[in-house]
Every structure is written in structure tokens, then in C-alpha cells.
Known about the structure:
single chain; disordered N terminus
Amino acid sequence: MCDSARAKRVNNRHMSALLVLLFLAPTLAGCFGSGALSGGPDESEHWLRPVEERSDLTYRADDIFSHVSINGSYGIDEVRSLYISVPAITLTDGGAGATGDAEVHLGLWLPLIEGCDFDAGEVAEECRVPIIAEIGPYYGDGDVDALTPANRLGRFLIENYVPHGYGIAQVSVFGTGESNHCMDLMGLDEQEGIHAAIEFLGSAQFSNGAVGIIGKSYDGSTPWEAAAMGSEYLKTIVPMSGLIGVHDLMWRNGSMEARGAIMHNGVYGSFGLDGDSEDPQNACEGYLEGYYAGVGAYLTGDNLAWIGSDYWEERSFLARTLQNYHGSVYIIHGMQDWNVDPHMAFPTHQILQRNGLDVKGLYGQWGHDYPDRLSGHQGLSSGRGGEAFPFTLRWDWADDLLEWFDFYLKEEGPQPRLIAEIQDNMGGWRVEATYPPDDLDWLRFGMDGCSIIGGGETITVSSELRIECPFFEEETRIVGNPTFHVDATVSSSEHWNASRSCGDGPAIPRWWQRG
């Protein structure tokens, strides 16, 4: 079995010794198939079965996302439009700092609870609710505004968790939606705006003082931004395909991505330019730095600290998260995600564990997507997750999140198991204590047992070298990234590139620069 996406760290234990879980395909899913799922929690046992015992359950699959299997007790109130002042943005930051009125905008949905008035000056303790926030640049910029439930995640959160006593906030980062100031691509200004929103949501009269953040891609990076800032109110984050650092994503393992040169000013910076009177606020420090930082890092491959720039350093979140954050982390990442590569999740999972944080992971063979989206999963191609579909779909995901939020935001129920759920490229799910697993063996193979079946020892810009090695003698589970050691001499060029592939799988490129 050759997994081209995540080869080639090896655990050579027989697969039959591993727990493999297959979840029901969406074509088999319909209304609730178990009486225990349609009612309230059984007082004698936890309402959510262990993940190993869910394969015989039938989950609802008639929507674009998963639904909780237990209906909540509350209605959903009308959305509230709120503007949160960010006094940390000052004149030296430019933009709205020049006028001292920097603010972020959010839409807030609260439950309708009998006898509770969330707009009163004093809200009763028993009425206060935890808040789940989804924070990003897309409200009003490529998607609905922040006051409309967003199909990408907001509607999922509102319909599933407001009836269970949660508030849901859709928050626009600076320079997007109805938030003013400038889009500085995850810089300190944006982090200050996110921090102000969390402080407000945690200290408001309607809040019980517990806030969680969830999102995917850019919106999966804002949880890391918030954790890096630290807050007594931030209790859990659920980053999906999120960035632990912007430079970490685009410059890695000797390679660099062309998009890194234009991501700030060429892509996201344009979100703040929409022809209104606030366009001049984009003339802030972070936006102006983006003009040289992207190109400079692309040309050199480093973070430009040697010229005195802190542009990339302030957009690095993991180290500051370890210093400032004391909550839990539920990491979700597609193992076939080639937009935000899984190296954002690994070894982050183990680093967080070693630093004493509660960590759970959900790692399936989907791409840059959510765990429960048929539209994205069914488009997976062969070698890129197609063999694992439809077992990539996790219709139990809404239940998993409800269990997670209940414990970390309400302090209700048993603690969720701090495990890594990992899917192999053939669709089988298994549970590990961490990921990559600790109980693995490194298998090393010398090239003396292999044969050259194409090309020669001298490589040109148009040639390739194909090497065929013997099949494994034992059934083997391949886990993690491969390491291939080769001695090479660069003869005529300052740059060269190479790619490797496993079997007939796709090639993975890597670039090197002399010196």
C-alpha cells in the first residue's frame, strides 16, 4: 500500500492489529436510525458513543453539512449587529489609527431562552451563554455579509448550537466587511482586532465568560492569532486547515510558493479596496510592508530579519500560543490538502501535547475542506483521496463538536477523548494516541537493491530519473513524510528542483538554491 500524500514513515505492524473504522456512506444516511439519538441524553451513560462504536448509526445527510443528533431546547433570536472598538490601534499604525476609531464588526446570534433578556443592563447568571466565533475576511468580500448565516460554516454553527444554548458570532477582520482600518494579512493589527472581539464576547453581559473560535483556511488561522494574543476568555480553538504562521506555510523544506510574493497586496489586500470613503485607511503599516516582504521572502527564502524586518515574525503564531494560551485545541486537517499543506498540523499536534495542552485531532483523506461536505469530497481524484470516498465524510462531526464545546465552554459532560482520528488512503479510520504515532519503526532501504528503469545519472532541465525498488515483503502501513537521501552536484545553475512520487502517484516538487 503506497500513500503518495503522506509517505514514507513506516509502522510495519500488520493492519489487522489496528482498529479500522468505516463510517456509513451518505447514500445510506437518512433520518435518525436510533431511538437513543432522537431523545435527550441518558442519565446512566454519555449520550455520544465512542467513535469506535458509531459505524452502525445512521446520521442525517439531507443538508450540505452534518447535524447534531439531539435537538436543542431553544429558538434562535434575530441577529444583532455590533461594532467593537479597538483602542490598541493608534496613530503609529496608520489607517483608522489616525482618527482613533478603529473597530471590528460582527453579527451575533443568541438563543431565545424564556425569562432571559440579553439586552438588559444586568443579565441573570443562569441566562449567560458561551460564545463560538468564526472570524475571517470573507463576510461581504466573496461571501454573504456578517449578518447573514454563511453556508461555509456560520449556518452550520447557528442551526446546530444556538438551540443548545450557545451564542454564535460571525466576525470580520480589519479591512473587510463592515470592519474599518486595513487588511494587514494576519499582522499585529489584525491580531489586536481579533483580541478586542474576544475580550468583548467574553466580558459582555450575555456571556458566561467562555469563548471558542472555529474556522477553516484563513478563518482557521484566526484561532491561532487569537491564541497567540492570549485571553482569559478564550477556552478552546478549532483550527481547520489553519496557519501556525504565514511564512511557515509558503517557505518550507527548501521550496517556496509563488503565491507567497502576492498573497498580501495582490490577493487579500484588495478586500479593503471597494471604492468607498474608507479606502484610504488601507495605507497602514502592515499593508505598506507587504509590498516588499512577499517579494523579498520569495527571492531569498528567509524571513527578512537580517534587514531589520519583523513582518514575518509577527505573523508567526505557534511559539506565542505556547507562551500565552492555556485552553484546548481541536485540530482538523485534510491529508489531501494542497492549499494549506498538512505540515501546519504536524508536528504541531505533538508540540501542543508536549506543552501540556489538551489536544484532539481529526485527519481525513479530504482536501481543503470540512469533514462533512459532500460537494467537496466527491470531487476527490484517484491518488488524492478518491479511494477513501465516501468514507471521508464524517456525518458525526456536529455531535463531536457539541461534546467538545459542552465540556470546554460549559464544563458539562465527560471530557472528550484526547486522541487523533486518522484515515488511511483506502478509507479506513483508526484511533491513535497522537499523530504521527509514537509506536512506529523506521524502515531504511538502500538504493543498492533498486534498479534504474529510466533516465541516467546526469539530470537536465528536461530529463528524469526513474528508480524501481522491490515490493515490501510484509504488509506495511506507511505514515508521515518520506526522507530520501541523495548526493548531487549542481554543475551549471544556481537553482535546481526535484520531485519524488510513490508508485504512479503525483510528484511532489522541491526546489533548492545553491549556497
